[in-house]
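The following record pairs a protein chain with its ligand, flavin-adenine dinucleotide.
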Amino acid sequence: MARQANDPLDLFDVRGLLDDQERQVQDSVARLVDEAVLPIIGKAFTQHRFPRELIGDIAAMGLLGSSLDGYGCAGLNSVSYGLICQELERGDSALRSFVSVQGSLCMYPIHAFGSEAQKQRWLPPMARGETIGCFGLTEPHGGSDPSNMKTHAKRRGGDWVINGAKMWITNAPIADICIAWAMTEEGIRGFLVEKGTPGFTTAEIHDKFSLRASATGALYFDDVVVPDEARLPAVLGLKGPLSCLTQARYGISWGVIGAAQACLGELLAYTKTRLMFGRPLAATQLIQVRLAEMARKITAAQLLALQLGRLKDRGAMTPAQVSLAKWNNVRAALDIARDCRDMLGGAGISAEYAPIRHMLNLESVVTYEGTESIHQLSVGRELTGLSAF
Ligand code: TGC
Ligand code: FAD
């Protein structure tokens, strides 16, 4: 919903620091979430189903690859992209995940490292939501150290032959195209592998307790032959996938604020009407301290995200800043969701209330795009100049 003055979910009036266009973007995505996402998302989560029916609306609003220029993309600034993530994740982390993967992890590398032919061919249908992408970096033997990559691509004449496996891949079961990162003789390279290419298969991961409204899967490459035109020509080495992660981690830093706001919003209403020991829960000191803690964490996360966005729009954002923001903001949101779950008492384990869904989702968010420990070590490396990985 459009935000008002004295909003308990925006105590420092961070919205007042936005420009008109940024506010418009936030309001239109907020409406989409209120009208189209919230009515169906709880059921999609319990049914373990990605709500594909939302892709059309998400694309029509320009939310796919929203900060890219040209090729049918909206060309919004980074703060607007952050607000899009925030509002979508207020609905569910699965939707922010979908938009992160499509825009930051698939369209961004094509835009930044692709040939002109690749950009012309893939970006417009991806912006329209007609072609869905996935990003294959993590492998079954371990994701934190992608430099230890077993998936490899070998030259054969003018082609490449790819062998290996990727694990825990968002959108894999629904993707038309995959950005597959593979080790070559020269180092890590990215390849565009289309669904239906012989030897390329996917398998859905069922029975997740987290991100149940997101489609997650494995990718298998068994002598998959792709032409050299499928290789992303303008990047070599780990900085290719890591620079995509920087874009997506930036979006997560904003997104999780929405999840935290959804939890606190629901809890404020609940504690004002739930009577215990003859008065509303909200009138007890301990509950107020816990609510105040949440407002403190949300406010700090908002200001961090906004400053990160302003730095990004100035071209001054660094990976260590992104690590600190992803770590801080996801930790804050996860703690808030868990605490809200607790303050709802027994009702907190019911699908009727959102905090347990957000809490379970955030258990993935704290792990993917670099675990909390990896981001702490990245900040430690920035402070000391010493790598402890
Ligand atoms: P390191 O020596 O630090 O760097 C290798 C090269 O990469 C450059 N670089 C970056 N470039 C752009 N952005 C960044 N964030 C970068 N970080 C590093 C660096 O300058 C260097 O370039 P060059 O030219 O000198 O070669 O590499 P390292 O091996 O020490 O790795 C460091 C570490 C551990 C931080 C990295 O491996 C890491 O981030 N690990 C975590 C892996 C991870 O986050 N995986 C995520 C998989 S995708 C996913 O989870 C999607 S979920 C999506 C959803 O549903 O929302
Ligand atoms: P590991 O790397 O095995 O880590 C296990 C534990 O060890 C963690 O607690 C970690 O912090 C800790 N650890 C590791 N190294 C150190 C160290 N040096 N010091 C201290 N502790 C350490 N990947 C993709 O490529 N594309 C996707 O689209 C994608 N989507 C995902 C969706 C979901 C729902 C999930 C859960 C994951 C997804 N991932 C994706 C994978 C994700 O990025 C990895 O799970 C993550 O990077 C961690 O890798 P891992 O699971 O192999 O854990």
